[in-house]
Design goal:
It is a single chain. Helix content is 45%, strand content 1%. The chain has 450 residues and is mainly alpha-helical. It has a domain of 280 residues. The protein has a two-stranded antiparallel sheet with strand order 1-2. It is globular, with a radius of gyration of 26 Å.
Length: 450
């Protein structure tokens, strides 16, 4: 078939009607530039620009450095976190910041310094060592709380350890933090974390720590968790003479998991992340020193924390969100359970690193990179074990959150001297102890962090 084109004089500016255009080979052809399209809506948008001699908007949202490296960009303006961590000049092809983060009851970071009595601004947090990771937010961005806004692209959230963080953990620690509020929060987090292995030892699978769901144990227990339960019982029963043996056994299991985790399927990988958490809690905080003489050294603990970042990254690649969550629709129960367990496991590993860093005098790392994700779900949804009952309760919960679920990022801008927003009060009213831990951590800014 011979394509026919209408030849237009450059000065002619006709009104384009899609119905009058020829569509050879089922394609839509721009009569001016001959570009092919498969959708009428795309051709219509293009034609309006083409006949006026206007360039189309660039679809590239990532900065040039991240685009060339083919790596995920956080879109922060004026400098994304990846460029900032590598001391690179950050440039964007578009002058408009990404509209990804906005919505009802959001708090603009530009207005944060104007809040009288506000604990700290974003820049003050950075200056004090409250280091931001790969998706920390810039002053021009706000918190996403609306399902009708342009969706945040969370498909490939990266939890690779930033090089600066690696240097901090493997370097020389500073002085342990002395800020009273930060220390109080640190001990609150640590005491909760230390209770989880004890819970496993006391009740086996009858009662579970708040990141392990009963659905994970509906068949055969995943091997990493089965081994973890054995070691938890050994740890709970150890005495002064057996402490060294138990510690060595835990260390060997950590080393084995670090070698094998990349071969696991999604269920075993989740179990491995949960096992790492329990083993590290016991190894770092579960042995008295110097009475036993077996307390793990800071350098050994730092090396383990750095290595486990790769496990967190691998776990994140299996999915930390569901499309249905972003669209405010009801997901499948099993899918929701597994993605919620992954998020809770990753957050728990962040809790551990945050508290250990503060205790040992290392700069703390707040989990800003997980800000766009949904905050931990209500305890009654997480603990529900009957699918039909969960479905009914989830529908009721969706009715309460018609404007979009509460996001982790919304916790970052809660100030002590200001009332909670309605959304924050609603979320806190339903939160379990895991959610309360998260709120406590992200709002405890250590005044003297280095």
């Amino acid at each position: 078939m011979v394509e026919q084109r209408r030849v237009l004089a450059p000065e002619v500016q006709p009104r384009v009607r899609i119905s009058e255009m020829e569509t050879p080979q089922d394609k839509l052809l721009c009569p001016k530039c001959s570009q092919n399209f498969t959708q009428k809506s795309s051709l219509s948008r293009h034609s309006k620009r083409c006949f006026q001699g206007l360039r189309g908007p660039s679809r590239q949202k990532a900065c040039l450095n991240c685009s060339r490296a083919k790596l995920r960009c956080g879109f922060q303006r004026p400098c994304c976190a990846r460029c900032q961590s590598r001391s690179l000049q950050c440039h964007y092809t578009s002058n408009n910041p990404s509209p990804a983060l906005h919505g009802q009851d959001s708090v603009s970071l530009e207005s944060t310094p104007q809040h009288h009595g506000s604990r700290r601004t974003h820049e003050e947090n950075r200056a004090s060592g409250n280091n931001l990771s790969s998706m920390s937010m810039s002053h021009s961005e706000t918190i996403d709380s609306s399902p009708t806004s342009e969706p945040v692209d969370l498909q490939d959230i990266s939890l690779d350890i930033p090089e600066e963080r690696r240097r901090q953990l493997l370097g020389v620690p500073g002085t342990p933090n002395t800020d009273a509020v930060a220390k109080h929060t640190m001990h609150f987090i640590l005491r909760n974390l230390k209770s989880w292995p004890r819970l496993m030892a006391l009740h086996h699978t009858r009662h579970l720590p708040p990141m392990i769901h009963r659905l994970q144990l509906s068949g055969d227990m995943p091997m990493p968790l089965a081994n973890c339960y054995t070691l938890v019982r050994m740890w709970a029963d150890h005495n002064k003479s057996s402490a060294g043996l138990v510690q060595d056994t835990i260390t060997r299991e950590i080393q084995r998991l670090l070698v094998e985790y990349h071969t696991y399927d999604e269920m075993d990988l989740l179990a491995a992340g949960q096992s790492f958490l329990m083993l590290m809690i016991m190894l770092f905080f579960g042995f008295q020193a110097p009475a036993t003489g077996v307390a793990v050294t800071d350098s050994t603990a730092a090396e383990i924390i750095v290595s486990v970042w790769a496990v967190k990254h691998k776990l994140a690649t299996t999915g930390l969100f569901l499309d249905s969550e972003l669209c405010n629709r009801q997901p499948e129960w099993k899918d929701w359970v597994l993605v919620s367990a992954r998020r809770r496991t990753v957050l728990s590993l962040h809790h551990l690193e945050w508290a250990w860093s503060l205790l040992r005098g290392y700069p703390v790392l707040t989990c800003f990179e997980l800000g766009p994700l949904p905050a931990p779900a209500p305890g009654y949804l997480w603990r529900e074990t009957d699918e039909q009952s969960w479905r009914r309760q989830y529908r009721d919960w969706l009715d309460l959150w018609k404007d979009g679920s509460f996001k982790i990022a919304e916790l970052f801008y809660i100030n002590d001297d200001e009332p909670l927003s309605v959304r924050a009060e609603m979320w806190l009213a339903e939160a379990d102890e895991f959610g309360v831990m998260l709120m406590a951590e992200v709002n405890a800014v250590p005044e003297s962090a280095s």
